[in-house]
Amino acid sequence: MSRQKERTRYEVHTYEDGNTVRHLEAVPDFHEERRKRKEERRISEDKRRRRRAARRNRERALKMSAGYVTFLSGCVFAVALISAAYIYLQSDVTIRQKSIASLESEVSSLKIENDMTYKRITTAINLDEIKKKAKRLGMKYPTKKQIIYYTIDNSDFMTQYSE
After folding, report:
1. Residue 142: which of 133, 134, 154, 150 has the closest Cα?
2. At 144, is the secondary structure helix, strand, or coil?
3. CA distances (Å), 13 to each of 1, 4, 17, in order?
4. 3-state helix vs strand vs coil in the chain, percent to 5
């Protein structure tokens, strides 16, 4: 009988739940819990230190010395001055472009007017009538002795003196 008791004492009964067997939970490791708590404390202290450092940095950033304010004011003034000069130059360029366009249109209209006047004059002249009047006044065609030919040496103009 003692064998039977020993046998029952060492028998392990398991319960199947579906097609898998449940595993027994291990005994909690207190050392692991302590290590986790220490790690959490270290992380929270790091966060507090970072927050304090960030707060100090923000306070330092908000403090501006008189020299820094003067420097920033000078920079703003310089930027404003340069911007005003740029706008002035842009408006000047625009005005000049408009005046150039108006002058070009004026030149174009004058050229058209000159061409029209020239055509009107050339169409109004009757060469046959001029020949008749010239003959009546005693004019003749020039002879070969009266015609003088000349050449121009690399210059684009010539001065003619009367005889």
Report:
1. 134
2. coil
3. 21, 16, 13
4. 70, 0, 30
The pLDDT tens digits of the residues spanning 103-146 come to 999 999 999 999 999 999 888 888 888 889 999 999 988 888 88
Question: DSSP letter string over 38-51?
Answer: HHHHHHHHHHHHHH
Task: Provide the pLDDT confidence category of residue 158 given band limits of 50, 70 and 90.
Answer: low
Calpha distance 111→124 (Å, rounded): 20
- Which tokens go with 17? 């739940």
How far is CA 124 from each of CA 118, 119, 121, 133, 141, rounded to the nearest angstrom? 10, 8, 5, 16, 23
Position 72: which residue type? Answer: L
Cα 116 to Cα 100: distance, rounded to the nearest angstrom: 24
What are the C-alpha distances in Å from 100 to residues 85, 105, 114?
22, 9, 21
Q: What is the CA radius of gyration of the chain?
A: 56
**Can you read off the two tokens belonging to residue 41?**
């404390």
Mean pLDDT calculated for residue range 47-74: 88
